[in-house]
Amino acid sequence: AMDIPVLESVQLVTLEDVEEAATVVAASPHTIRTPLIAGYPIKKSIDVRLKMESLQRTGSFKIRGMVNAFNKIPRDLRSKGVVTMSAGNAGKSFSTLAKAEQLDALVIMPDSVPIERRAAMEALGSTVEVAPLQNLQQVVNNHVLQHGRRYVAPYDDLALIAGHGSVGLEILEDFPDVEVVLVCCGGGGLVSGVAAAVKMKAGDGVRVYAVEPEGAPTMALSVKAGSPQPYDPALHGTHAHGLAAPYAGPISFEHVKKFVDGVLLVSDEELAAAARVMYELGFVAETAGCAGVAAVLFDKVPLLGEGAKVAAVVTGSNISVDELVSVVFPSEKSSR
User: d(Cα 329, Cα 46) in Å, to the nearest integer?
Assistant: First the structure.
């Protein structure tokens, strides 16, 4: 099984960390302030607004945390290059920033990843190495120890969590009377940041839920067990690559424990249906990124009354036409 890092002491992001990160993110040429769109008929009698991080530069929210993390790398520690591990979106953001800052970049990817995701990373100028999901961290550690590369964590890192928290602050600014915020959860970095930002800024009156695939319920299992649990490919499986993190991040887990009201589970079919709804509304979103929408569509959110005010974060648009056809619109494939 994977070795999950054990934390000696737990540090959580502060509101100051998040607000500082939000300033860095807003000032970056690599990010935009994404719209929170209202008025789409997602669910009858519920005011669902979509925080469209799928329209973010690089196609996912991850660029926010990365901008903040890169901002924290001391200038004198950049010469030997940077390394990360990623199945896609984190690597894309990492590669984009490394290229912009002319740093030698290496991405370690799981060998299960579709070839086009690897090509996308290489097109951005990064070197890609593949390894089994279980060995990713080990391969990264070797590069750090042997070649002096600077490790930029893909998730479960305070700089990233603070950067992602900017999504939460923007939701509160655009939707001050929001009651429920739904955030998809893989390793947990996004929901950690959003929940921390929302709870510290707006108080406990606003509920925040993490939404996970039934096929990769690492955070749900972790909450139940009281400690971070690994993703077990023998027990589980999901087409939502972006949400199948190798383990629930220990730092994220502590944020979830403190700031998140619950973990909701959605099936792969429900994620695909949510991606279909998004597509029909004119948005390309990967299934992993539609978890929040799926939770509303399929009544997973507890105590949602008439006219409830809900913000769902839609997180990524990195889905190929092939994946769109085979996963999101499988019934139409056969009829062509």
Answer: 26
